[in-house]
Every structure is written in structure tokens, then in C-alpha cells.
Amino acid sequence: MASLNKVMLIGNVGKDPEMRYTANGKAVTTFSVACNRVHNGPDGERREETDWFDVVAWDKLAELCSQYLQKGRQAYVEGRLQTRSWEGQDGQKRYKTEVVANTVLFLGSAGGGGAARMDRFDDPGPSEQGGGGPPVDPDDLPFE
User: Fold this and answer.
1) Domain residue spans in the chain?
2) Is the whole-model pTM more than 0.85?
């Protein structure tokens, strides 16, 4: 039986993206996306909640996200979920689940403004961190 690991999000960028380079020179950009959802609470009252997702983009897609995304801009992110683990300085095992992006559509402009502009950027193919590559070595990451 085949399996599927695919995530699609539309939301607002929560803070300006941070781009770094790994020790071997690969560009990696991280940013968060906030997605709002509306539901009725137990009292029947309508409530809005926000879910936050950490996103990682690699290579050329990382450079483009760093250049074009900014806090408040709406974006469509498509990718896969990845959970990585490492041992913290306190000796405790830590886990982080994030969306590894392979497509990003830049919607609207910073601070809302509708979808007046839409730019599409795709990861050009499987890379070291793409769908078919080896797992990420946490020591090779420039963050946490």
C-alpha cells in the first residue's frame, strides 16, 4: 500500500523569514505560517482559533522565500511533514515537526491587501533535503 505525506496551507507569515546556510553551503530559510479556523464552541458561540506551522525551505526556494516573504504576507505552502529529533544541552531528547516546503505561492502583499499578486516558486526537484533524500542531520542545521 502506498503512503502519502502532503501538507497544503494558506495563511499569513508570522515573522520575517530567517535565511541561513548550512556548513556545506546549502541555503535554508525558516518561517512560520498562521492559519485561522472558525468553529462553534460548546456554548454555540462562534470562535476563531489560530494554528501555527513552522516551515522550512531549501536551496533556491529558500532564497526566494527570504527575498519575497515578510511578516503579514499571505502565502500558500505545499510540502510534507517532517519530524526531527536531537538531544538538547540538558540531555533531554527534543522533537520538532515542521513543513518542508516544495512549493510556495506568494499571495497578496504584506499586511493583507488581497491576492493582487501571486508568484509561484517550486523546489526544482529532489535535493539533499527533498522528498527522496536522506534524513536531516540536526548538527548540519544552523538553528536549534
Assistant:
1) 7-124
2) no
